[in-house]
User: Fold these one by one.
Assistant:
Number 1:
Amino acid sequence: MTLLKESYLCHLLALLLATYEDSGLHRLAVRGGAWCSRQIDESAILQPLCREGAVARSWPDSGVCRLLSWLVNLPGGLLRKFYLALEGTFEGSFFARLAFRLGDETAVAEGWLILLLWIIPYERWNNAYTLMAFLLLLLLLLVGAMGRGDRHLDVERVGFYPTLMFGAVVLGVVFSLTRNASVRFLIYHVSAALCVLVTVSALRSAEELKRLAAGASGCVALSSLYAIYQRLSGLEVNESYVDMDLNADMPSRVLSFFDNPNTFAEVLLLLLPLTLALLLCSKHLLSRLAAAVALVLGTAALGMTYCRSAWIGMACVMVVLIFLWKPKLMPVFFALCLLAIPFLPASIWNRILTIFDSSDSSTNSRFPLFKAGLEVITRRPLSGAGLGTAAVQRYVKLLNFYHARTPFVHAHNIYLQVWAEMGILGFVGFVGSLLWGIKRAAHTVRHCADGAARTITCAACAALCGAMVCGLADYLWNYPRVMCIFWFVFAVALGGAKLCAESA
């Protein structure tokens, strides 16, 4: 580390930063950022887009929110009464005190659990693991609430639109054309809902938020290390993943512990921003070094996936993250991006160029999928075909909506697929959840002091923006494990915004 600090490169970077801080460009960037902030705060056009909507604002005081909050907290309330009735017995028991102590550390347990869950190889993975893990975390949270009367499941913070989304999930089973298959997908969504509820409710401090980011960083490091091992060990090129006529020089696409390189890229897209945030807010040298290693490994692995939609999504992530965290660094970021172009490997540069090539078979194969998804929406706009890819597949096959050589798996667009499965209510709930969560996080970080909670909230918000962009060309929830990771990042954004608001 001393050698790094004394190196020519380090001195050069310090000189460049010092020059930039004293430059007219920096002063211009600061003034431009202040002007943009004033426009957002004062503009009659931008204010309605940035502020919380009337429905979201009224949610905490609504009868539905109070009823749901009472229902989900009823078991915890009964356990609390049971504790008070036998307080002496519980306080005299070593195991009871240990259980209460563990319940207070639910967020810490979640950090370890998400690391263990998300590095299980695909061939050994079972989606029941996620459900069991978050049921265990829920039990821990309830035990903690039993010993402390100030803990509860925070339905209010989860918000109206995610609740609407889950209601649409249930209706998607009720109106499904393949109800038995849809029940299986309902379990996946229940796991995701538990993830959001437990994460938002368990977070009490910035240190706990850093623990969750550390769990995500561990997943990035281990999965990326295995992906690099795959590359070095000579992973065979799978021609079903790429058009070899346009990418003849491209090596194999790594997939790590997951079944598909696109899936692995989506995991990195969601978790790499949290890794970067952990690097930026860590105070100890060892944790910074570990986060830096994870970030380098993850960035290299993301490049080796050759997933174009994830690359575009990551570009969006970086723009949003820097804009929210330190807007004055935007000119430096764009300058570094331009300087990095000549150093890109030829295979990555050629892969980027295929985005604009109309003859690329991977790009062209998406249009029949989009068309089939739109046909389902046109025929069943209100209810959809039913929850899960199986119901949409059956409906597409039944009415002969798809005409292409490759089989129809999903619509390859998260917005089309959600609408095709859950109808208009699910689409509104999904898009509303993302926009509300992003706006809430962005608004909070703009009006709070610097700190770990602010940095990680910026990163989670940026990851959601990147996922929304990536979702235009892919269905991120095709693998339920990625769905849970998606909602975990959403919960981190909400939980971080809660902590930022409380510290403001």
Number 2:
Amino acid sequence: MYKLLKINMSNKRLKTIVKIISILIYIITIPIIIFNMTLIIKSYINPNETPSFLGYKNFTIVSRSMENTINKNDVIIVKEVSKDEIHKNDIIAFFQNDEIITHRIIDTVEDNGTTKYVTKGDNNLHEDKELVTYEQIEGKYQFKISGFGIILKILKNPITLVILIIILILNCLYAYNRKRKKEIRKQKRKIYNKKVKNNEK
């Protein structure tokens, strides 16, 4: 009796663990798939623009110009904002010379009626040579995810997206198969109980 109870308890614990893993797979894979698919579609529709998700963009830092505020391999999240929301001391990501740069605004100047921004990396000795216009700004810095750049590079890989979709499909098939087996067992139990009742009569 003790051994039977122990086996049942083990099976119950195993089923709980499997259920938790299954839920975690949905929680992790679905947002990543949606996020990646959105970026891929937007990149295809507008190849000359940096794709965004609900107005947010992410960039991986590849230099040390903003240390120790933002470090190399950190992932930063920036938000598309209006001109009125950009002020001195804000950190912005902007497009310049075919690359995305993330620096701090240290001053603003008026140039022929156009507001331009003087930028500088926190770890740099001198300000940037070129002024930045509002049209160049990709977004205003919101927060960073330390050291996430390497992982993000893997997640953005199309092969990773395919693998995640396969995992999600297999997980759905497993859940469906479990549910089907449960229903079959339930029906068999029902038929068995009915037979037992008939025999008792």
Number 3:
Amino acid sequence: MRDKQLTTAGGHPVADNQHSLTAGEKGPVLIQDFSLIEKLAHFNREKIPERIVHAKGSGAYGTFTVTEDISKYTRANVFSEVGKKTDVFLRFSTVAGEKGSADAERDPRGFAVKFYTDEGIWDVVGNNTPVFFERDPMKFPDFVHSQKRDPQTGYKNPFRMWDYWQNAPQALHQMTILFSDRGIPDGYRFMNGYGSHTFGFWNKDGERFWVKFHFKSAQGIKCLTGEKAAKIAGEDPDYAGRDLFEAIERKEFPKWNVKIQIMPEEDAETRSYNPFDLTKIWPHKEYPLMDVGVMELNRNPKNYFAEVEQAAFSPSNLPPGICASPDKMLQARMFAYPDAQRYRIGANYQALPVNRPKNEVNNYQRDGALRFDGNSGQQDNYQPNSFGGPDQDPSVKEPPLKISGDADHYNSHEGNDDYSQAGALYNIMSEDQKDRLTSTIAGTMQSIPKDLALKNIEHFRKCDNDYGSRIEKKLG
């Protein structure tokens, strides 16, 4: 006995969903079989374009609870009082792999948090690393291309990434993390997340502070060895997503302690490093971590496509009290991410349930593909107007940012120290960790030409002589 009647998308009852309409028992299929045509046409279109990066991911819902008062730094409503709870959606992902890749590949992991705040969506679109490979967005497409498939052969080629990296020492800090033990997290629950970029806070008095976001795993850090990861990749390519989903189903809700680093606005002018450089960290001795709250994931999606695949994040989603910084990569991502979502999902992607804010939305955007929310009915779509349409609110205006200098294509690599922080990271590792790190790097270099390997080794030597020497020795 059926519970519901099968219909077409137009609501028409379907008489037979098992057999096509044909001209006679052995005759050709008739185009008038509208149920078949609709079924095939939708099937051909049921996959939206996959993300260029972060293509494969898993997600879950939860809550963020404020545990400490930081109102002196920001007027953001999400932090308005201790004990305040805000719904969140968190999408984890691998970065370079395609949709069907294995979860256990050596790769950074995406860590994108959507906060459904009382004043709109706030997206922290980060990774499980505090830094990245590039500091200038002009190089981001080139870097990604070097990690993808060879245009002639269709397979990944280590030569391409090492050929790129020989001219990109700015990547050394992130490379040291990628090839270390933390390069392959044991699922998504046992890794940290970072906003990575420098963002801004501003308070009710109009004072600005620079801020970095840290999400520290309450489960601790667990990582996979290369050997174990290879075994898992072959046996269970969906390992990390499965682990997350099943843990939540068992009510073993994963948590992260949310922390921040705060830098007074004027400090940015006096640091020996550029605080807005995505390849750099802020030393914790200078700017210690401060507790803010706890994030817990406690509900699985009901439909993967609707809630995980169509989840769309953008670092430009910044509610009042949180703002951008001069971080060049952040500035570019604030354009690139929503632009990618408009291409991938459509102009009205923010109206989809997983992306829609909880507070009321009032604007003059109309029409576009897949407009399914009434399109604001009869209300006209221009402003200023005399019909009482939504109006601007000067009270949420961000304080002015002081800018100086000439417009030019500045070389952000020239004179920049690309080696010290990577070397410092290497030197806090144990002997075993150093051995595994250098063995992994040497392993990926085995097939590349000797002269290319030596050029890259020279970069590692500049981080720390022992770092490069070990790699060179292991390459024979």
